[in-house]
Amino acid sequence: MAGPPMKVEFQWTRQSAGTGTIRLAQCEGQQIPKETTVTSGIGNGVVQALTTESHSACLSAGSKQTIRPPKGSFVYLDVGRWLNGHQDFGLVWGNQAVLCKYTAGATGPARTGGGILKQVGLGGNLLERFLAIPGVSEVDREWIATHRSPNYDKITVIIGDCHIPPSVPKSVPRPPTNAKWNNLTFGSAWDDPRAWDRSVAHDIFGSRRSTDALAEFFDKLAGLSWASQVHLVQAGDLYELWAQQDRWFQSRPSGPPGVDFRSTSAVSSCADQIAYIHDFFDGVFMGLEKVSKVFGSVKFLHGNHDNYLWNSSVVAAANAEMATRAGRAHGSIFGNRAFPLSKCFARESTGNVFSNGMLVEHGQRIDTSNSDGNQTGHDATQKVVGDGVSARVLKEFDCVRRESFVFGAAALWVTRNMDFSVYVMGHTHEPLVRTVEVVHTIGEMKVYPYMFPGGAGATVTWEVTEKD
What was the pLDDT predicted at 358? Predict the structure, then answer.
């Protein structure tokens, strides 16, 4: 079972004497996992010192609304990543949230702490059946104690960050470096080592190591006799559209979050890259097509590295581009086979999926540099690419900042008046499932300016009516 519950305490202070109105001052956390290395801990300290991100996360879900400060709990599920040989995903079924992993090439039933589970199709509940799929194994689970209406007739699979890049697949080796590469003697640009290097540079997360496993996973799921009871949510960053790419979106320094293209040509450039990704990794996207036809539902979110997909114009442009290419000769990289035709799915316009007490979002909502419309994250991504000093420093001091995301989830739970029992996210690439307990204290406390960017008066915007 998962570790001890994480606790979030919202601390409120009276706005003025003689009234029932109180105002959020700050929040504190307990039992929230710390950074795993000294350098990532330092990185987290720098982020918090410059942005007070974790405290700002408490204010990230709404503004100037009268709410009841509820006490209670919900399950926090970070579904991890499908990257670099790590294949994590989440399952939500009935009153249970389960963190799982997938191992490619398996042919027998998975084992868990309870031994070998029932074979697929031979009985058992939906969770038992899913855990018996070859290659699937349970990592951790949490009981959803506060679930109001658990549904045991459906199971939801949540897959997080894949960052599939417009890069040649892992199966395509680097061409040998020799004097001929400056001559026009090659039949394809991919015979040029420089072109291969430029292509692979897009793969900053080692995504190509896990794409074959993802295609295999989708093929297995598409063949389930009970597939209509399975629902899929892809929680964003399915594509890698930032690394080694121009910034095609405009910065939004103020106003609501959003993704605006800089020009019509930017939409075309983005659509071209999506088409290349589908072409290079057609097994993944053909697999998605298969499950979309047999699953109960499939839903997709945008992340930060594929934020463009939130804009429906690029989805339409990508599908049009792929339709234009379909059937044409591909070139020597894949033995002159034809371009496949697969689909780029529309993203949820709300930026989240809410269903039966479960809320799924990517997680960039409260990330200071990667929120929608913020160009800082894109700029930093370009610095990470390569082997320069800045790239090594950024990678070394990269941090999860779990406290920020847990605070942000708790804030959302409070402002939505506890309408979800399970909160699911991706974004961090670090899987975790834990219960979050939310408590409140009200008192006369001093609000220091450092608690929130711009000072307490500028940022503290929730108004809460004190009730029993």
Answer: 95
CA distances from 373 to 153, 252, 255, 269, 366 (A): 39, 5, 10, 18, 12
Six-digit token pair at 142? 């949490």
Name the pTM for this structure. Answer: 0.86
- In angstroms, rounded to a whole number, what is the distance separating the alpha carbons of residues 62 and 58? 9
Do the beta carbons of residue 234 and residue 163 sit within 8 Å?
Answer: no
Domain boundaries, given as residue ranges, for the chain: 75-167+202-398+422-433
The pLDDT tens digits for 407-461 are: 889 888 887 878 899 999 999 999 999 999 988 776 654 444 333 333 333 233 3
